[in-house]
Amino acid sequence: MAYFSRRNFLKLAGISSAALAFPHIASGEMNSSDKPNIILIMADDLGYECLGCYGSESYKTPHLDRLADTGMRFNHCYSQPLCTPSRVQLMTGRYNFRNYKMFGYLDPNEITFGHILRDAGYKTCIAGKWQLSNGIEGPFHAGFDEYCLWQIYTAIARKDARGSRYADPKIYQNGALLENTRGSYGPDVFCDYVLDFMERNKNKPFLVYYPMVLTHSPFVPTPESADWSNNKHESDVRYFADMVAYMDKMVGRIAHKLDQLKLRQKTLILFIGDNGTPQEIRSRFGGRWIQGGKRLMTDAGTHVPLIANWQGVIPGNQVSEDLIDFSDFVPTLAECAGANLPENWTIDGQSFYPLLCGKQASPREWVFMHYWGRGRNIFETRRCARDKRYKLYDNAAFFDLRQDPLEQHPLEADAITGELKHIKERLQTVLDRMK
Fold it and tell me: pTM of the full predicted structure?
């Protein structure tokens, strides 16, 4: 398309390490039919404490647990504390200080994984929650051939984007408002669209980006709740468990469809959450209660699940302790697809694709967060760098997360000596260069 050729930002790679990892790829040029499919699923407002495979005792997630059991589960994946900042960083591979303009907005000049994979020969689809402005053409301009989305901002008014995401949903599909959605359930509509897209493109490489509407508030019944027939409910946290279960069901439907299409060995499935669980949700986890921390920069607001599944490539029962942040997905997807990253364009992430393939990788030593959100001063910017145990903020507050996960007691200056001093200095170096 002319819109993207004017960017002139991408050259296709002839071959990559994907050829060594993916059993269907022969030596030489990577043909379109050789490229693996990629499905990236992102739950909305779901922290790591909500999945059984991580130790949750409050929710049932058998399909995701099965993907983890037959794939790889990551113990240290970190998002931003809120949905739009996480989505912008995830889609662009760039930290928010470079490209985050306002809530609910994606700069149309940004390069996304949709652009990169589409130009590498993939059919691209997004279904679920948009919330990134730029009108009904926005998803197309962001690199997606097709879409089925809630919260499309039209020229009529911002509020026109809303409507229900659940019962009787308001959904835009490829530039038009869907009709006859009364009696439908939004998550079913989105999942049905994804399954149909996979069916129609089973003989060519495809990217599915599925930013789910579940499990975001309002907390309301699902079609499998006992009182679904009376679906006009006020938000009630008692329905959150039902919403988690239905979210898991949608993941199971996608995995089952891949089995039907005989595409499991040709498809990388990635599952993540976009930020921590809402603060009104308390979950039993590992023998203790966890309070959700959405909007907070603590682990409760930023520690999210990451599961990778790829039959024949990722062995089962793998658990990774490597650090992952949301900037890492663009280079990972590009390497998986055999595509070069755009030249003369800053990408902050590093690929964890070799890790998925059982190859030697260079794990990152830190994660960086730049969060511009609502605070006591209406809008405030908070920045921090962390490793698996320690976190340093730009106001010099330094925390031992193992001893103080809620970040209530900064380490005293006289206690920061020896190796601890070197760790703080290393994290400070990260903060200093992120400008």
Answer: 0.91
Report domain 2-357's class: alpha beta
Separation of alpha carbons 221 and 244, rounded Å? 11
CA–CA distance, 275 with 294 (Å, rounded to integer): 6
Q: In the structure encoding, which two tokens stand for residue 38, read together?
A: 């990629």
- Residue-level pLDDT, tens digit, the chain, 435 residues: 222 332 333 323 332 333 333 443 333 345 666 899 999 999 999 999 999 999 999 999 999 999 999 999 999 999 999 999 999 999 999 999 999 999 999 999 999 999 999 999 999 999 999 999 999 999 999 999 999 999 997 654 455 557 899 999 999 999 999 999 999 999 999 999 999 999 999 999 999 999 999 999 999 999 999 988 766 778 999 999 999 999 999 999 999 999 999 999 999 999 999 999 999 999 999 899 999 999 999 999 999 999 999 999 999 999 999 999 999 999 999 999 999 999 999 999 999 999 999 998 889 999 999 998 765 555 678 999 999 999 999 999 999 999 999 999 999 999 999 999 999 999 999 999 998
In degrees rounded to 5, what are phi and psi of residue 338?
A: 70, 35
- The enclosing H or E element of 138 equals helix 138-141
What strands lie across the sheet with 398-400, from one edge to the other?
A: 367-375, 378-386, 390-393, 398-400
Distance between the two ends of the chain, CA-based, in angstroms? 34
The contacts found for 347-350 with CB under 8 angstroms, 24 or more apart, are 347/93, 347/94, 348/93, 348/94, 348/95, 348/98, 349/93, 349/325
- As annotated, the residues of the chain forming the CATH 3.40.720.10 domain(s) are 2-357
